[in-house]
Amino acid sequence: MNKGKILVVEDDLEIRELVKGYLEKEDYKIYVAENGKKALDLFRKNNVDLSLLDIMLPDMDGLQVCREMRIQSKVPIIFLSSRREMNDVVTGLNVGADDYITKPFDPEILVARVNANIRRQFYTAGGYSSEQSRHLFDVLTKREVETLMLINRGLTNKDIAHRLYLSEGTVKGYNNTIFHKLGVKNRTQAVNLARELGLL
Q1: Can the peptide bond before residue 107 be classed as cis, meaning omega within 30 degrees of 0?
Q2: Which of 29, 38, 48, 65 would you call most buried, defined as having the most Cβ atoms within 10 angstroms of its Cβ?
Q3: Final residue of a domain: which of 107, 124, 141?
Q4: Which residues carry the post-translational modification 4-aspartylphosphate, per the record (predicted)?
């Protein structure tokens, strides 16, 4: 089943193919572009559901590409960039991006962020009728969604801490916050509820 169409804009062939492979395993249809001109052309012609966009492209600044995309569409745009400074992230979000992932990245976390943004777009567009599900998703932060995705995969708090570069105590804090927001008492209940509402 095709879950949606994603445009991957990345001039590094290795990264481009890595991202493409992981997203295809999730049943997304993938379009790839190695520069801004091709990216905008594919974006206009294919009515994509989300764009993954590098900032440093060979022909034009990814920030400008983002501005052009945002003029044409409200679909989610996620920057995938080696620029890690806070002002770079803020700039990226201010020009219209919905999310910002820094390199190097964990491909599975990238997939989780893509899934989260696709779902948010779907709910916002009115494609899902459950008010409970929409509210549930909106109250979880991106980091809490990431933590829940990893809980769903059966990772321990220690494993999650290592994966997200956090302390184990911080992860336990995320667990407690997730349980409180979802109105559940443990990991199993949290995962079951999220699956039931189509969030996992």
Answers
A1: no
A2: 65
A3: 124
A4: 54
Distance CA 2, CA 94 (A): 31
> What pLDDT digit, counting tens, does each position of 72-83 carry?
998 999 999 887
Tokens of 139: 């109250």
> Is the pLDDT reported for residue 64 higher than 90?
yes
Shared domain for 37 and 81, answered yes or no, is: yes
DSSP at 100: E
Alpha-carbon gap, residue 182 to 80, rounded angstroms: 30
- ∠ at Cα 192 (189, 196), nearest 5°? 135
Q: Report the CATH number at residue 110.
A: 3.40.50.2300
How far apart are the C-alpha atoms of 53 and 97, rounded to whole Å? 9
Is there a single domain that holds both residue 99 and residue 141?
A: no
